[in-house]
Write a structure and sequence with these properties.
This protein has 254 residues and is α/β, with parallel strands linked by helices. It is built from 9 helices and 15 strands.
């Protein structure tokens, strides 16, 4: 009998500790990973602050849901490992929702409509993905652009040049180290606009994509809070205000 009472007491104490820990976790800052090399979605301004469309969106969601955030600049190549390791609570970094990633992570509802876009020199004859078969092409390692090109020419093709960020793949193209670069439409268009000798090529065969906020597999509570916040900022017009700020037009679903 004494052992049973002792066990019950220990169990009650454990529940109390767990409940206290959960309450404490709710009050702490949530750590958010974002690769700040991805203008206009996330980048460092002149004061070394991380700003951009993604940052405004996640801050609006957090304000609506009463969450406190700490945003950490994390290389895209290690962003998923940081989430799995528990170093961060969730990720917003222009991450395309796809079936492969959904096997390992859970996503919010889409917060941005995207597609891939090709960047080439202005005198290039490249008109589609098919034209890149025998050309050197730069991509961000592990990105959707990497996946698209790997399916087209083979993952181990020596013509695929992988880098850690979009600025690097565009600067490699501008320097003549590759013949083309592939990446997400918003950021590729933004970067190419800074290089007068480059242009973009839109291949109609590229599928429509959607960016989502990434949480650890099974973290339904956080996923639901993010979705609720996203739905709220769409409903009250905040989403469109942010979209117009960064893309100079009203949001129109693709």
């Amino acid at each position: 009998m004494w052992n049973k009472k002792f066990a019950l007491a220990v169990g009650a104490a454990a529940v109390s500790v767990l409940a206290g820990g959960a309450a404490q976790a709710q009050g702490r800052d949530l750590v958010v990973a974002s690769s700040a090399t991805y203008a206009p979605f996330a980048f460092e301004n002149k004061d070394k602050q991380i700003v951009g469309f993604d940052i405004d969106i996640v801050n609006a969601i957090a304000k609506q849901q009463g969450m406190k955030l700490r945003i950490v600049n994390t290389p895209f190549s290690s962003i998923f490992a940081s989430l799995n390791n528990g170093d961060v609570d969730f990720v917003i970094s222009g991450v395309t929702i796809n079936d492969k990633r959904k096997q390992s992570f859970d996503f919010s509802q889409p917060y941005f409509d995207a597609r891939q876009l090709i960047a080439v020199p202005k005198d290039s004859a490249v008109a589609s993905l098919k034209d890149l078969k025998d050309k050197k092409v730069s991509v961000v390692s592990g990105s959707t652009g990497d996946d698209v090109l790997s399916r087209e020419v083979g993952k181990t093709s020596p013509n695929i040049r992988r880098f850690e960020s979009t600025p690097l793949i565009i600067s490699e193209l501008a320097a003549g180290g590759v013949d083309a670069a592939i990446g997400d439409n918003g950021v590729i268009a933004y970067r190419v606009s800074q290089y007068p000798a480059l242009k973009t090529v839109d291949d109609a065969s590229f599928p429509k994509e959607h960016f989502g906020i990434v949480v650890r597999k099974g973290d339904k509570a956080l996923q639901e809070k993010i979705n609720a916040g996203l739905a709220a900022i769409r409903a009250d017009g905040s989403y469109n205000v942010i979209y117009k700020k960064w893309f100079n037009q009203d949001y129109k679903p693709q």
